[in-house]
Amino acid sequence: MTGTAMHQPTTPRSVLFMCGMNAIRSPMAEALAKAALPAGTYVASAGVRHGERDPFVDVVLDEIGLSVGRHQPRTLDELEDDYFDLIVTLAPEAHHLALDLTRSMAVDVVYWPTPDPTVATGTREQIVDAYRAVRDHLATLINRRLVVAPAGEKA
């Protein structure tokens, strides 16, 4: 990457978000990115292994007017497309797999360490707060690192 490219970021045309089971972090990131990135940007998510849909994801996305729709967790093998400009990994196991799979490909792989909210304990509200924290963390990263402001504006 040239020095100019680092200072003049471009919005990727296709982004894959990866986590452990495609149940919480990556589908949440997918929904947030679809809302934030320009129309026509292909955004998908996948997990290293199969998982179950998590209802708390629906709760915290609904609070900000978003939804994962009919999303069902899927693995990399179940993706329709296998080429992306950027792969964003949200868990260590996903990062290691992405690096292994893209060794001979021209694709950027970045790791955004993101906590697993399922480890939260306490009341329902305390657990939902952990999911909100993940949602807000991902929204901040997407807006700071993937959303490119029009020329002359600050991102």
Question: How do you describe this structure in short?
Answer:
The chain is an alpha/beta fold. It is built from five helices and four strands; from the N terminus they run αβαβαβαβα. The protein has a single domain (about 10-145), classed as Rossmann fold (3-Layer(aba) Sandwich).
Q: How many domains in all?
A: 1
Strand order of the largest sheet: 2-1-3-4
Q: Which spans of ≥5 residues are poorly predicted at pLDDT below 50? A: 1-8
Mean pLDDT: 90
Kindly estimate the percentage of residues that lie in beta strands according to DSSP. Answer: 5-15%
**Looking at this structure, what is the CATH superfamily?**
Response regulator
First-residue to last-residue Cα separation: 21 Å
Give the H and E element order: HEHEHEHEH
- Fill in the CATH topology: Rossmann fold
The helical percent reads 25-40%
Name of the CATH architecture: 3-Layer(aba) Sandwich
- Spatial extent as radius of gyration: 15 Å
Derived from helix and strand composition plus strand pairing, the structural class reads alpha/beta
Number of helices: 5
CATH C-level label: Alpha Beta
Profile the largest sheet: 4 strands, parallel
Structural summary, described in words:
The protein has 155 residues and is α/β, with parallel strands linked by helices. The chain has a single domain (12-145), classed as 3-Layer(aba) Sandwich (Rossmann fold), CATH 3.40.50.2300. The chain has helices spanning 3-7, 25-36, 55-62, 92-101, 124-145; strands at residues 14-19, 42-47, 86-89, 108-111. Strands 2-1-3-4 form a four-stranded parallel β-sheet, with helices on both faces. The longest helix is centred in the last third of the chain and has 22 residues, at 124-145. The two termini are 21 Å apart.
